[in-house]
Amino acid sequence: MGYSKDQLLARLQELQIEFSQYEHPVVMTVEAQAKYVGNTGAGLSKNLFLKDKKNRFYVVSALADAKVDLKVLSQRLGLGKGGLRMAPEEALGEILQVPLGCVTPFALVNDSAGHVSLLLDQGFKGQDRCLFHPLSNDMTISLNVSELDKFLRSIGRDSSYVDLEANPPVGKDNPPDLADLVPSDSIVLSDPPEKAASLQGPRNDHVISDNKSTEITAKANEPSRKVKNIKEKSVSIVQPSSSFKDVGQFVEEILDKTKALLLSETRVIQITGETIKQHGERLGAVVADGIRERLSSELKADTRLYLNTAYTEGFSVARTMFQNTGAHSQFRCL
Amino acid sequence: MDKKEAEVGALQNVEGKQEEEEQVVNPWEVSAKEGGKIDYDKLIEKFGCQRLNQSLIDRVEHLTSRRAHVFLRRGVFFAHRDFTEILDAYERGEKFYLYTGRGPSSEALHLGHLVPFMFTQYLQEVFKVPLVIQLTDDEKCLWKNLTVEESRRLARENAKDIIACGFDIRRTFIFSDFDYVGGAFYRNMIEVSKRVTCNQIVGIFGFVGEDHIGKYSFPPVQAAPSFPSSFPHLFSGKDNLRCLIPCAIDQDPYFRMTRDVAPRIGYHKPALIESLFFPALQGETGKMSASDPNSAIYVTDSEKEIKNKINKYAFSGGQDSVEKHRQLGANLEVDIPVKYLSFFLEDDAELGHVKEEYGAGRMLTGEVKQRLIEVLTKLVERHRRARAAVTDEMVDAFMAVRPLPNMFN
Q1: ipTM more than 0.90?
Q2: How far is B302 from chain A (nearest CA, A)?
Q3: Any idea where the domains of chain A sit in the sequence?
Q4: Is A5-181 in CATH node 3.90.960.10?
Q5: Which residues of A298-309 are buried (b: 16+ CB within 10 A; e: fewer)?
Q6: Chain A: residue whose CA lies nearest to B380
Q7: Which residues form the YbaK/aminoacyl-tRNA synthetase-associated domain (chain A) (predicted)?
Q8: What is the per-residue pLDDT across A249-283, written as a single tens digit (0 to 9) for each?
Q9: Looking at the partner chain, which of A234, A236, A316 has a beta carbon nearest the beta carbon of B393?
Q10: CB contact under 8 A, B166 and A304
């Protein structure tokens, strides 16, 4: 069963994510939503649920006034022109498990959305706070986008921010810049009349970053199909970590991991009067040692990845400088 | 090749004759005696390598000031040639380099494929030595009838999974045969080729008259990386550098040949440290096969798929009924979940506990499988996460023919 609004809100509180909530009558469009929360000073979002010809799904979440051109987006993802279209209504219920008019990045908390790629509008970063539906149309929550990132990390996702209004050329010499964000797996909805085969997507899993999405207006593309089986993906989808390029994000992830481990470790030891008596002042050390050991190998692996990524960047730069093309003459080495 | 090794080699692969009584272990086929499992003691004896004993493991811990890798502690890497010499030299301050490789025959890697890489990564980390990784795309093109393009593509794809095992890019050179063979490497290949006769090759690998000449000429390609002069951009002037090769024991024939030739060219014999085969889900009678998806856990398997495969296909040593099980306990010798746990469950105490309780019948198969599913899922998730961070550019960087300054620091 999909997460309910209350479950989500409880989860946000557990994660100590800072947000405000606004209740209002059910709204089905951005315009209607704006009537109630448009003057809060926060950036309203529009959210699109899209699919491509190979049954791969995307949530594109953008500032309400951003211009999102699906044709451009489709090309940037490497899907050709016209490769993207609105996902059918059934997919909304089956994959995102939210009602009509309620597409939101938070829907990714559901296991069924495991293969959905998320694209977030870079524009969100420029806002103090942004507005999203928390899995239900009768409420809107407002939070800073870094808090959204925190939530996404907690479900094993990285946040990919994209300049949704950009229109870079895509061609032989310019590979699609968002190709990384195409999911590796397609999702087969039960009984689809069109191409049923789940095709193999490109090998890398990618975080879907922000895409401008327009609110889905409840238009089903195909006549009602009964949803029978979805290729379910449990918990953490692997997203390519941009944290391996970003020091801040890297460190935050380490701290998040440590915190999560601390919380679970203390739960295991059950900090009670007993254990305090047993270990006395050493309780802190005992817990700390346990955490240290658990974290050690994982952090080493992560750091190695960070190192390799940095080295690769240097290598690329050097290669560009010394490639024998016309452009290289502008670079110099002592 | 000394008489004993040649004899052994000949025994191993008598042309065409499938000796039902004997187990078969060579780079292209691994099967146990009918219905049984691989007899590793016999293998060591036949091949003529040594057992890796506890004193060597202790020595490694002492020299590296780190706990030995779980594969050493559990006897996964169980045999060696000249590992003692490597440690002796290391103690004297003489470094060595690591050499391992993969035949990129398929896109799907399973856990068995990861084992040597996981271990090699540990060796690189604790000894702080450089590593060369050979992708034998030419071999797969020759044996598996893949096109050149396809083998090269698979090589690059496999490189990503290999890199995801956590190798240090400052000390690691990955190369594909199709890209790298030539120059000094090729010169060493010729030095090897002229010192191995057709009869010897047939004796070691069992080639027949109908086999194409590509097969005959391939072994020197796998031998050449054992010599530091094959990598002038890395080891120029260091002809005395020793080589240690972590691999599965079915690769031993290549390196028996190499070791025989090495002193005749004036190089150290490469040392080897060899592992058991990772057993297939259905049981110990052979090794995991890329062609049967249910015989193995793949790094691309989802949590659900892992759960399903373990629950459905992992061969259990438990008894048929709960009552019988509580009475007799499980047969740990054939139980696959326990075997897998001994590969991947790091905590010695927990493994010991599981073995005790399960062997006594107090723990049920379901619980053991459940724990295994947790462990494997975590492992696979971690691998996938790391792999997702490997870009094509990173592969280019690992494969660039470049110097590796500080490779010994």
Answers
A1: no
A2: 7
A3: 5-181, 193-333
A4: yes
A5: eeebbebbbebb
A6: A238
A7: 24-151
A8: 888 888 888 888 887 767 666 656 666 666 677 77
A9: A316
A10: yes
